[in-house]
Write a structure and sequence with these properties.
Among the domains are: 122 residues; 85 residues, no CATH class. Helices cover 51% and strands 6% of the residues. The protein has a 3-stranded antiparallel beta sheet. It starts with 5 loop residues before the first helix and ends in an 8-residue tail after the last helix.
Length: 470
């Protein structure tokens, strides 16, 4: 393949170096030009080739010009300069930027230059000049009162440790505004904007939540306000085991499991401390709806380490806790599917119906140690009795499976005969045992033990009896 001088592409007469033509004839060498390494024996390109070369040259050069212009425009943009001012703590720069934003026209439908500058200014919520600057912007109409909750949330976050009294004033402003908005249908969006993920609710110790809990259980307050308060106080995001392993490829699985267990237990202790303060609440359905997202977030993370949270409540001896386990699942099923909780199978209608479903764990095994020692006794039979009693806690399990039981059945056998929870909610345990046998258990060699019911199949799948599993 021949390479041509740049002059060929633009129609100029080429100056070639000494070379050999295909027929062996020699051509004159021009001493004014130094050979640039081009093959002189090739013919100049045709007109289409020239246009192709020009197109490639221009198409490669123009993007570079656009990139340079774009970088300059980015550094001149309000958002970039406001972010730099927030990082450096330059309050005076925000006065100039907001004045400039007031004169800047939006570039697209959802563009709001003044809101862009104000949003970056929220990072300086703990600065002494924060609120005076906000008041000036409010007077001039540069900031809308629709941002008041965001402003006071930022102020609380900046003053929580620096000046707790002023921080609590901002918290009270947000709560009062949310309560007033709950009574106005046109401002219903503001309830979530003021309370969802608010640091004075989600990050406050449980001992300091007393006054806020009093407002959350106030029967005279709007239901949407009370529900939003309870949800904000109880919910917190938890990184489960798979997420930790994906986000940090260098972390060892045992360490990731310990970190997940630590976060799960911290969230669970806070959640249960708040629930203990709310046991006397009269509206249990409101409590279940408001705390269901937090409970199932803990369940999702707990299942990743093999210790489901919901199982403890489903098998609890306390009616309050046992009813909550079912109410949490029941409250989430009619709602829009949450991809974060998809692993629980709540919205998988091929497995979980819209109504309640009772799931049971069928354990198959036999007491081999007790059988081996049954025929051997000492003088008083004491060792055999100890061995037989000890064997029940070291049962060798042959297998386990999860089966669904029909709720609302009759003729339940006594609960203590078939393990914890098996006589609850009107489920015929005998029918469940028959289903266990029908799905592959050998009645002649296996002893069947049924545990449940659980409100979710995923909870039953991950249930285990002890730290080592069943």
């Amino acid at each position: 393949m021949h390479a041509y001088p740049l002059a060929h592409a633009f129609g100029r007469r080429p100056i070639v170096a000494v070379g050999r033509l295909p027929r062996g004839r020699r051509i004159r060498h021009d001493p004014r030009v130094v050979d640039a390494g081009f093959s002189s024996g090739a013919a100049p390109p045709s007109a289409p080739s020239r246009f192709i070369f020009i197109f490639i040259f221009v198409s490669g050069f123009l993007p570079l010009l656009g990139l340079a212009a774009g970088c300059r425009h980015y550094h001149d943009a309000l958002g970039y300069q406001a972010r730099q001012a927030a990082l450096s703590g330059d309050v005076a720069a925000f006065e100039r930027l907001m004045a400039r934003a007031a004169e800047t026209m939006p570039e697209f439908p959802r563009d709001n230059p003044k809101r862009t500058v104000a949003s970056h200014f929220l990072a300086l919520g703990g600065h002494d000049a924060f609120m005076p600057t906000i008041h000036r912007w409010l007077e001039r109409g540069w900031v809308s009162d629709r941002m008041l909750c965001a402003i006071h949330r930022a102020r609380y976050r900046g003053l929580a440790t620096k000046n707790p009294d002023e921080a609590l004033e901002s918290a009270d402003t947000c709560i009062a505004r949310a309560r007033a908005a709950a009574e106005d249908p046109e401002r219903s969006w503001e309830v979530e904007a003021c309370l969802d993920g608010a640091p004075f609710l989600a990050e406050t110790s449980t001992s300091a939540l007393g006054p806020m809990l009093a407002q959350a259980v106030d029967p005279l307050a709007p239901l949407s306000f009370r529900s939003a308060m309870l949800k904000a106080m109880t919910f917190r995001f938890i990184s489960d085991l798979p997420t930790r392993l994906v986000n940090d490829p260098h972390v060892e699985r045992p360490q990731a499991m310990r970190d997940t267990a630590r976060d799960v237990m911290a969230a669970r202790r806070r959640f249960e401390a708040i629930l203990s303060m709310l046991e006397s609440i009269s509206d249990e359905s409101l409590l279940a709806r408001a705390t269901a997202p937090a409970a199932l977030e803990i369940e999702r993370a707990s299942q990743s380490i093999g210790a489901p949270f919901l199982a403890d409540y489903a098998l609890s001896e306390t009616p309050f806790q046992r009813d909550l386990a079912w109410a949490w699942v029941r409250a989430m099923k009619p709602k829009k599917e949450n991809p974060r909780l998809a692993s629980l199978g709540i919205w998988n209608r091929r497995r979980e119906p819209l109504t309640d479903a009772g799931w049971f764990v069928c354990l198959f095994g036999h007491d081999t140690y007790a059988q081996d020692t049954a025929g051997h006794q000492d003088a008083d039979g004491h060792e055999v009795r100890v061995a037989a009693e000890h064997a029940s806690s070291h049962r060798r399990m042959l297998g386990r499976m999860t089966v669904r039981g029909d709720l609302g059945g009759a003729g339940d056998p006594p609960r203590e005969e078939h393990g914890p929870g098996t006589g609850a909610r009107g489920v015929g345990v005998g029918t469940v045992i028959d289903r266990c046998r029908a799905q592959g258990a050998n009645e002649a060699t296996a002893k069947i033990r049924v545990v449940g019911p659980f409100p979710l199949a995923s909870t039953a799948d991950h249930w285990r009896e002890g730290p080592e599993g069943t």
